[in-house]
Design a protein that fits this description.
- The protein is α/β, with parallel strands linked by helices.
- It has a single domain, classed as Alkaline Phosphatase, subunit A, CATH 3.40.720.
- It is 31% helix and 18% strand.
- The protein contains 13 helices and 19 strands.
- The strands form five sheets. Strands 1, 2, 4, 5, 8, 9, 12, 13 and 14 form a nine-stranded mixed beta sheet that branches. A four-stranded antiparallel beta sheet has the order 15-16-17-18, with helices on one face.
- β6 and β7 form a beta hairpin.
- α6 (185-199) runs parallel beside α8.
- The protein starts with a helix and ends with a helix.
Length: 471
């Protein structure tokens, strides 16, 4: 009897700690914007876009000023986030299904058009620790580029999925649930994401909310467009009221999900991440399109430059991240995989994961991660007018290798974030060492390289591009 009493007393004394241990397993909410550039939030320097919910999140967590997407276009970046691997290792290196350039100077490799089932996704890895996972929004990892049987998120470890309903120019074309024809798709998806939080509040979960905005078609709610049209300043870098309206709706959707976390008492036990899949689109077919502006960074989506891959990123880990701090350490999309698994206490069973855990810089934003460099590999042509390239960033230095010219350019991002001054000629030693690092990495991950195109025809290639510009 005495022994039983002692056991009961011990359990009573330590039950709060045991309860805390169970509750301490965090939920994860990952917001992924589509084509949002580095200066696409008010807290990251926009002079037009208003993003109060995301700005508040930045005040509560860590803002990463040197965060990168894994690719200059969407599908590879999404594959990298969900597997922790470089797109070059996956051989999934372009948006699905890519572009056909039969007469270009180089022939692109036979790349992987879809996320293969032998890859262990973040959802599958978290399932081992008892997590439920939901995907809401844009997937873009089907082999055909559209919906394909057996390649949905639920076929890659997710327990629940919601795609956008039938729509045109971001507006529903028919009733879907409680939403009517003409409603904005971002509002619909936000409501579905909130349902996940409400229904799964008693279990650890991973919610991956992948927006369709502010990707083309650039069209927002009429009332918001009118509102922003009246706010544009003459000398502002951001001038498009439709784009601003789309960003506004995205921010409201983030606010709806964060509100659901608060309402269900989950805010202090949920890691919240916001980032983008690539830089903002600034030009198509070699011409400026007026959608957005990533300055001071050079160019945008599809390009080899910083504007194509540097993105806004915010992470809030309640009780861990020091509120309102900036982190200048270079980080990249693959890092979420290892980061989430370490937070959840999951032993990673996947081999050759390329990302690293961000836990050290989340605890101390001034810390440095233990890696030499980060890389990009895009052996494709893009509608922006850009050709195949690889790139490497090592601390302040960034080197770009252009495959068409077989040339390199070298930039010091600390003194020249806009990549205006190519220093390769005056720093041949640095250029050579950086190029060596890049070549070694390409060999290590088995990167596919473009080759000389026997069908290359400059006249026919120019004609194809001219016709596309007219459309």
């Amino acid at each position: 009897m005495k022994r039983d009493s002692i056991i009961i007393l011990v359990l009573l004394l330590f039950s709060p700690l045991l309860t805390f241990a169970v509750e301490a397993k965090p939920n994860f909410v990952l917001f992924l914007a589509d084509d949002l550039g580095w200066t696409g939030l008010s807290s990251f320097g926009s002079d037009l876009y208003e993003t109060p919910n995301l700005d508040r999140l930045a005040e509560q967590g860590v803002k990463f000023t040197n965060a990168y997407a894994a690719c200059t276009v969407c599908s590879p970046s999404r594959a990298a986030i969900i597997t922790g691997k470089y797109p070059a290792r996956l051989h999934l290196t372009d948006f699905i299904a890519g572009q056909n350039r039969p007469f270009a100077k180089l022939k692109i490799p036979d790349w992987q058009k879809g996320l293969q089932h032998d890859e262990i996704t973040l959802a599958e890895a978290l399932k081992e620790a008892g997590y439920k996972s939901a995907h809401v929004g844009k997937w873009h990892l089907h082999p055909s580029g559209g919906k394909s049987e057996d390649f949905d998120p639920v076929d890659h470890g997710f327990d629940h999925q919601v795609f956008k309903p039938v729509s045109k120019n971001n507006f529903l074309t028919k009733t879907s649930g409680e939403f009517s024809k003409g409603d904005f798709i971002t509002d619909y998806l936000a409501a579905e994401a909130v349902k996940v939080v409400d229904q799964w509040k008693d279990d650890p979960f991973f919610l991956y909310f992948a927006f369709h905005v502010p990707h083309t078609p650039v069209s927002g709610k009429a009332e918001l467009v009118d509102e922003y049209a009246g706010k544009i300043q003459t000398n502002a870098k951001h001038q498009n009221p439709h784009y601003a309206a789309m960003v506004h709706s995205m921010d409201e959707a983030v606010g709806s999900v964060l509100g659901a976390l608060e309402r269900n008492g989950l805010a202090e036990n949920t890691v919240v991440v916001f980032t983008s899949d690539n830089g903002g689109l600034t030009q198509r077919f070699g011409k400026l399109d007026g959608f957005t502006d990533n300055s001071p960074l050079r160019r945008g989506k599809g390009s080899a430059y910083e504007g194509g891959v540097r993105v806004p990123q915010i992470i809030k880990w309640p009780g861990v991240t020091p509120a309102g701090t900036d982190c200048s350490e270079p980080v990249i999309g693959m890092d979420f995989y290892s980061t989430f698994l370490e937070m959840a206490g999951v032993t990673d069973e996947q081999k050759q994961v390329d990302g690293v855990s961000l836990v050290p810089v989340l605890r101390n934003p001034g810390a440095e991660l233990k890696r030499e460099a980060i890389f990009w590999h895009y052996p494709h042509y893009h509608a922006g007018g850009d050709g195949p390239y690889s790139a490497v960033r090592a601390r302040d230095w960034r080197l770009i290798h252009s495959f068409e010219e077989d040339s390199v350019s070298l930039y010091n991002l600390k003194s020249d974030p806009g990549e205006k001054s190519d220093l390769a000629a005056e720093n041949p030693g640095k250029a050579e060492s950086m190029f060596s690092i890049l070549n070694e990495w390409r060999s290590k991950v088995g990167a596919q390289l473009p080759e000389a195109n026997a069908a290359h025809d400059l006249k026919r290639e120019s004609e194809v591009q001219r016709k596309k510009k007219k459309k």
